[in-house]
Amino acid sequence: MPSISTKSPNVTAVTGGTARWHRRLADTFDFLNHVRKSSTQQEICRYLLRYAERFGTTNLLAGPIPPRRALKREQVSHVLLDAWPEQWSERYFSKGYLYRDPTIQLVNRGNAPFLWSEIDKVCEVCPYGRRIRNLVREAGCRY
After folding, report:
1. Residues in CB range of 86: below 8 A, 6 or more apart
2. Residue 40: partners with Cβ closer than 8 Å, 6 or more residues away
3. Strand blocks (E) in 9-143
């Protein structure tokens, strides 16, 4: 509970903010401990997804982005963590969606962390990206 002071109204905000900061830090250390103790990529993926659920994430795919024009086989070889529906993953890589995916476009621009609403802005400019976003939703993934 934040402390209250009549001398300085900022004390409550700072103390309350500090409590939230400590909670976030504890959550982060807890997550990192789970990752450190994990023995498989699937366990890491499960903990990452559990952590990301608070932000509305239902699925994830992670790994280094392969060079442009990489064939499907090379693209798939870069996947380190996979929590996508299998049929969607097959379609995504078979159809070459990787380099037109609005999330990949934002990552390639070197953006700092971004909001999902920013993906919608990219989709307004790029009809193909909008199509991919809609297909992602149809596949049961949320972003």
Report:
1. none
2. none
3. 60-62, 81-83
Q: What is the pLDDT of residues 22-40, one digit of tens each?
A: 998 998 899 899 999 999 9
pLDDT at 54: 84
Residue 142 has what pLDDT? 66
Contact between 3 and 16 (Cβ < 8 Å): no
Longest CA–CA span in the chain (Å) reads: 65
Instruction: Sort strands 60-62 and 81-83 into parallel, antiparallel or unpaired.
Output: antiparallel
Report yes or no on whether pTM surpasses 0.90.
no
Question: Please, are residues 106 and 119 in contact by the beta-carbon 8 Å criterion?
Answer: yes
Domain residue extents for the chain: 38-138
Q: Give me the residues paired with residue 83 across strands.
A: 60
Low-confidence spans in the chain with pLDDT less than 70: 1-16, 111, 116, 123-125, 142-143
Check: CB of residue 69 under 8 Å from CB of residue 75: no
